[in-house]
Specification:
5 strands; DNA binding; 20 helices; Serine Threonine Protein Phosphatase 5, Tetratricopeptide repeat; Rossmann fold; alpha/beta; five-stranded parallel beta sheet; 448 residues; DNA Cyclobutane Dipyrimidine Photolyase, subunit A, domain 3
């Protein structure tokens, strides 16, 4: 008999409770990854995410082979693919890390039910969040809608468990099930290949994730509180795509940060913000399509200005900090968090373009876009989300640049034409567009 470990957003060997439980069964272990773009409600990955997934799967497959087992790749509806693979492999159990999005939970429930009906053990484990969403409740038994009391409640819980060690060897099957070829999935861009900047910026995979964690804690974390809002400083953890793909677990990050002896409260609060996003998604599965605050369903969005949208997407708005951020995003698949807030505010409040347009662009272009944090943060900026920025908060990109990029280093790197005074003219006046946005938000508040 064989035990299958079903990998999803947990592409690692260290601190993997499902993998550890599989090894304790004392039978051959086979990893499986199912590329499911067909099940109802599943959101297809964006281009940058697909690039990362390709390389992370390649790394995981090599590491499993090195340790004696294999990673089987299959494509299709998971509720059909997994039971079929169980039959092919003669598996007695399928183990996996829990997921928290609505469609994903439905898929996992259906798979678990089908397997158990066939007498196959099916178990899920907590591996992706420090605090599972249903375990954190207000005194009235409801989910939290404000971050500070949410994180306070999390910190009052027992300390997150210690991370599990990486297995040195994996018992492989005598006969390995057939696997798709990763290259045949077409996850990498072609015609044209736009990923040069991603290749220059990132190295996906668990080993690189662990190295980056150690580098951050030994070299950068001391300056994190002081410089984290300065986009030119480089003082960020760069862990968000590693956590999104599960190449490193939040338990590993948590304990490594605490053990570093540095002042890591501010950094860990960002891990808490990620937890809050997933807490919110768990209770509101339609987060990327529906306003959390339903009053904003009545927001008077004007007809979509496609020219303005394309100018924003391409970093051609004429606003230096906005254009620098959007060009960094296109080149690297990432953007500094402070600048993300600025460009999002500009789109929603200065251009009066629905936040869902921006969320979809980020979904397509960010290597760290996930189902919780991406829409959660867009709704926060738009004012319609949990613990949202107040409607009257409009990030002025010129003031933000003066405060956080005072010497123009960030703009000079990513938008040198602006630094040379040759950038495009602004497509909108910041003051009058701010007034227009506040009038629209006031109209919603009066109706509510």
């Amino acid at each position: 008999m064989t035990t299958l470990v079903w990998f999803r957003d947990d592409l690692r060997l260290a601190d993997h409770p499902a993998l550890r439980a599989a090894l304790e069964r004392d039978e051959p272990v086979v990893g499986v990854y199912v590329l499911d773009e067909e099940s109802d409600g599943v959101r297809p990955l964006g281009g940058a995410a697909r690039w990362w997934l390709h390389h992370s799967l390649a790394s995981l497959g090599e590491r499993m082979t090195d340790r004696g087992s294999t990673l089987v790749l299959r494509r299709g509806r998971a509720a059909e693919v997994v039971p079929r693979l169980v039959a092919e492999a003669g598996a007695s159990a399928v183990l996996w890390s829990r997921r928290y999005g609505g469609p994903e939970r439905e898929i996992d429930t259906a798979v678990k039910s089908a397997l158990r009906d066939d007498g196959v053990e099916a178990r899920s484990f907590a591996g992706s969040l420090l605090f599972e969403p249903w375990t954190i409740r207000t005194g009235a038994g409801r989910p939290y809608g404000v971050y500070t009391p949410f994180w306070r409640a999390c910190l009052a819980m027992p300390e997150p468990r210690d991370p599990l060690p990486e297995p040195r060897s994996l018992p492989g099957p005598s006969r390995r099930p057939a696997s798709d070829a990763l290259d045949d999935w077409g996850l990498l861009p072609a015609g044209p290949d736009w990923a040069d900047g991603l290749r220059e910026t990132w190295e996906p995979g668990e080993p690189a994730a662990r190295r980056r964690l150690q580098e951050f804690l030994s070299e950068d974390v001391a300056d994190y509180g002081r410089a984290r809002d300065e986009p030119a400083s480089g003082v960020t953890s760069a862990l968000s795509p590693r956590l999104r793909w599960g190449e490193v677990s939040p338990f590993t990050v948590w304990h490594a940060a605490i053990d570093s002896g540095a002042d890591v409260g501010g950094f860990l609060s960002e891990i808490g913000w990620r937890e809050f996003a997933w807490h919110t998604l768990f209770h509101h599965p339609d987060l990327h399509t529906m306003n959390l605050d339903r009053r904003y369903d009545a927001f008077p969005w004007p007809p979509l200005d496609t020219d303005a949208l394309h100018a924003w997407e391409g970093g051609r708005t004429g606003i230096p900090l906005v254009d620098a951020g959007m060009r960094e995003l296109w080149r690297t698949g990432a953007m500094h968090n402070r600048v993300r807030m600025v460009v999002a505010s500009f789109l929603v409040k200065n251009l009066l373009i629905d936040w869902r347009q921006g969320e979809q662009w980020f979904w397509d272009t960010l290597v760290d876009a996930d189902a919780a944090s991406n829409p959660f943060n867009w709704q926060w900026v738009a004012g319609s989300g949990a613990d949202a920025a107040p409607y009257f908060r409009v990030f002025n990109p010129e003031l933000q640049a003066k405060k956080f990029d005072p010497h123009g280093e960030y703009v000079r790197r990513w938008a040198p034409d602006h630094a040379d005074g040759e950038g495009p003219a602004p497509i909108v006046d910041l003051l009058s567009s701010r007034r227009r946005a506040l009038d629209a938000y006031d109209a919603v508040r009066r109706r509510g």
